[in-house]
Amino acid sequence: MAAADAAAALRPPADPLSDPFWEALRTSGDLTFQKCRHCGNSWLPARSECPRCLRADWGRETASGAAKLISWIVYHRTFNDAFADRLPYTVAVVELTEGPRMASNIVGVADPETLRIDQPLKLVVERDFGTAVPRFTPV
Amino acid sequence: MRGKYVIAGIGNTAFGGLPGRSTISLNVEAVRNALADAGIDKDVIDAVMVKYPTSRFESMYAMKVAEALGLMPRINCVVDQAGASNAGMIAYAAMAIEHGQCDVAVVCFADNPKTGSRAAYSRSRDPNAVFGWFGTPAAYAMIARRHMGEYGTTHAHLGAIAKACRRHGAENPHAQLRKPLSIEEYLDHPLMVAPFRRDDCALVTDGGAAVVVMSLERARQLKVRAPVAILGFGQGHTAWDVALRPDMTSTMQKVSAATAFKMAGLTPRDINVAQIYDCFTITALMTLEDYGFCKKGQGGPFAAEGALEIGGALPMNTAGGLLSETGMPGLQLVLEGVRQMRGEANLQVPHAKTCVVSNQGGVMHTHSTLILGQP
After folding, report:
1. Residue A2 scores a pLDDT above 70
2. Taking the model in full, what pTM does it have?
3. Is B243 in contact with A93 (Cβ distance < 8 A)?
4. If you count residue pairs, one on A and one on B, with CB atoms under 8 Å apart, how many are there?
5. For residue range B53-68, what is the model confidence (pLDDT) as tens digits?
6. In the CATH scheme, what is the homologous superfamily, with its name and number, of domain B5-117+204-221?
7. Cα separation, B204 vs A99, whole angstroms
8. Do A80 and B132 touch (CB under 8 A)?
9. Looking at beta carbons, which residues of chain A come within 8 Å of B145?
10. CA distance B259 to B237
11. Contact (CB, 8 A) for A74 and A90
C-alpha cells in the first residue's frame, strides 16, 4: 500500500457526527466534545443520543486542553505497518477536565515507563497522517 | 434450578495447528466426541447453540452447524457474547429446557485462526486507528497498567498467573504449549505491548469443543455415565469500551459471580477448584478479585503466593487455560471443570466437589459464570 493510502486508512471514516470533531482540530486546533443540553452530560466520541438521558438535544463545546492520564501502553512491536517506523510509541486513555475520556497518544516523554497514573497532561494537536491528531504531553 | 441440569457429555478436537479443517468440521468432530462421552445418540439433540468463530463472522452459522450435524433442532442459534458466549449458552440451554422449549442441547464452538486468518486479533476499534491502537492485547494492557498504578500490581504478579497456567499446561498431554515458565524466564522476555510480554497473552489455536446439556432426570433415563451438576450461573456486562469505562479495574464479573453464587447457595470459600478465563494474565487476576477469592487489588500477591498452582489454596486452570492448553474462548475451561467434578482430570484436585468457571469477552465487556458440582 502506498504511504498516502496507508495514512488514509488510519483516518476516521467520513461521518456526519464525527466530522466536526476532526474539522475543528484541523482548522482551529480545538478539541471539541458533545454536551447534553438537557442533563449536562459530556461525552466523546461522537454519538447521536446522550448516553445518560437518551435525548438528542446536544451542542458542541471546546475543551480547555487540560486532562489527566488514566492509563497508557507502550508498543514495542507493531500490529500495523503504518507504525513500524515509530516504535516504541505510547497509546493512552486520558480524561479531560470537562469529563469525557478518550484514546490518545502521549508525546514529549523520553521514557514512557516513568509516567504515572492520574498525572496532569495538556493537549498538543499534531499534524499527522493527513489530519490533525489530538495528543497529550505531561504538564 | 440448582443442580437440576447437568453437563452430560464433553468433547473436543486436538488443539494447535489443524491445516485444512473448516470450523464446521471442527464443530462436528467436537459434538461427535461429546455425544460419545455422554453415551447418547445424536437424535435426542433438539437444541444446537453455537458461538460463531471469532476469526470470521458468518450469518446463519448455527444453521450451517446443525445441517452438518444432520439435525432439525427446536432451538438453533448463535449467541454473541464474545468470549462469555459459551458459559452463557449453557445457562440459556438449561433455562430453555426448564421451560419446555427443548430437551437436550449441544453447545459448541470452533475456530481456525492459527492456520487461517488472524486479522481479527490485529484490528483497531474506530476511532482509535489514528493513535496506533491496534491489536487485542492493547486494551487489556491498558487495564493492567491502571491496575498496577492503583494497587501496586507488579510485572512479577502478572507473571505468577502465567506461571501457574503454564505449569499445569506442561503436564497436560493435549495442551498446545507444554513448556513451564519461571518468573525469571517471564521477566527476561522483552516487553511487547508494555506492560505485557508475550507470555501474558493467550495462544492462537485451531480447534473445537462441545458440551451436552440436559436435566439430571433425563441423564438418568439415558444412562449417562458421569453427569456433572450445574449448581449456579450468572452474567454481567460492562458496556463501556475500555477508553470510556469510568472504572477500568473492576468489572461486571462481580455481578455475574454474585448471581451464580446466590443460585448455587455457595460462597467463594466453598469452591475447591477454579477455571478462570485467562486470555491475558490481567483478566484472570482481576476475575479472582471480582469473584471474592481475594480482596480488590490483591490478585497479584494472591497469585504470587502460589495459591493458584496445584496443591495451593485454589488450583486454577488445571489443564493450562488459554495461556497454555488452547487459546479457544472459554469452552475448554468448562471441559476441565467437568473433568475435575468427575474426578477424572489429568491434574486432579483431591476431593474437589465444586468448581467455578469464568468466561469473559470483548475486553472484559462480557462476563459469565458457571458453578459446577456433584449431581
Report:
1. no
2. 0.97
3. yes
4. 97
5. 999 999 999 999 999 9
6. Thiolase/Chalcone synthase (3.40.47.10)
7. 38
8. yes
9. 71-73, 117
10. 13
11. yes
